[in-house]
Design goal:
alpha/beta, six-stranded parallel sheet, 11 helices, 43% helix, globular, Malate_DH_type1, Malate dehydrogenase
């Protein structure tokens, strides 16, 4: 059973991972606060450093009253980011502005690209060997931005940079469960590609569940654009925060378990990959077996239906464009 099925599958427990320091950059935001709460509950986390421009000392003080062993510290302002990142095993980055009604991924890019670049530069300086989990949207571009900064400073390790796409799998399991009146925790959908719109490819043919073509097309569209449902429902108040926090915490937990030596943990994640390189795509999300180094075995796509092959062909040019936007941003800035 893949670890992707449930966040509650078990916290990290090995000796290596029990003393972990995790830093959350953007900890004062809509994703950052519930994400930090979930990480405070994880016994593998010994030190939890919260960083944001404002507000983090208050968030840290609040969380520090929860009776788990993790020591929580709050850091705010550019002058304190080094203290937050130093000695981190994992840095989780939900920093940036959320998507609002009418905003495109390009709008998000225009604001969040610079934020992610600056965090990458701080990581180079204070925690170049940390495993970095990027939630900041648009992931298809922000992950390459982060990697390019690391490359230019000679510290890029493809096994240590992850785009967190877990929410796509969480949504896919939920939506399939609703359609089939089944327990979503027992449903595993291999979702590949990227983390926005048509770049999200749910491989429903690999679930072992029978669908009509109408169900496949409706589910595919809902999984690809599920984020829009939340943006619309929040009526201008933001995008997915609670579900993204749970998905981000699940991935962080899985990585902690793998870093601690537990084997067989597989999660979907957007990484530097050969899976679609023949089609010109260097970064791609697929199931990845996590290891003590971070990225372990990158699983192939597997068999695709004719419909899924069509989806793949539509995703490739969009992914290439998104990735090139990130690389170009660093080159120009």
């Amino acid at each position: 059973m893949y670890a992707t099925r449930m966040f509650t599958r078990g916290f990290a427990s090995s000796a290596v991972s029990r003393g972990a320091k995790v830093a959350v950059v953007g900890a004062g935001g809509g994703i950052g606060q519930p994400l930090s709460l979930l990480l405070k509950l994880n016994p593998a986390v010994e030190r939890l450093a919260l960083y944001d421009i404002v507000g983090t000392p208050g968030v840290a003080a609040d969380l520090s009253h929860i009776n788990t062993k993790a020591v929580v510290t709050g850091h705010k302002g550019q002058e304190q980011i080094g203290e937050a990142l130093k000695d981190s095993n994992i840095i989780v980055i939900p920093a940036g502005v959320p998507r609002k009604p009418g905003m495109t991924r390009q709008d998000l890019f225009n604001t969040n690209a610079g934020i992610v670049r600056d965090i990458a530069e701080a990581t180079v300086k204070y925690a170049p060997k940390a495993h970095v989990l990027i939630i900041s949207n648009p992931v298809n571009s922000t992950v390459p931005i982060f990697a390019e900064v690391l490359k230019r400073n000679g510290v890029f390790d493809p096994k240590r940079v992850f785009g967190v796409t877990t929410l796509d799998v969480v949504r896919a399991s939920t939506f399939v469960g609703q359609v089939k009146n089944s327990d979503p925790t027992k449903i595993n959908v291999h979702v590949v590609g990227g983390h926005s719109g048509v770049t999200i490819l749910p491989l429903l043919s690999q679930t072992g569940i029978k669908f009509t073509q109408e169900e496949i097309e409706a589910l595919t569209k809902r999984i690809q654009f599920g984020g829009d449902e939340v943006v619309k429902a929040k009526d201008g108040a933001g995008s997915a925060t609670l579900s993204m926090a749970q998905a981000g915490a699940r991935f962080t937990n899985s990585l902690l378990r793998a870093l601690g030596g537990e084997k067989g943990i597989v999660e979907p994640t957007f990484v530097y990959s050969d899976v679609a390189r023949k089609d010109g795509v260097e970064w791609f999300s697929t199931n990845v077996e996590l290891s003590t180094d971070g990225v372990g075995k990158i699983h192939p796509l597997g068999s695709l239906s004719d419909y899924e092959q069509t989806l793949y062909k539509a995703a490739v040019p969009e992914l290439i464009k998104n990735i090139e936007a990130g690389v170009s941003f660093v080159a120009k800035n």
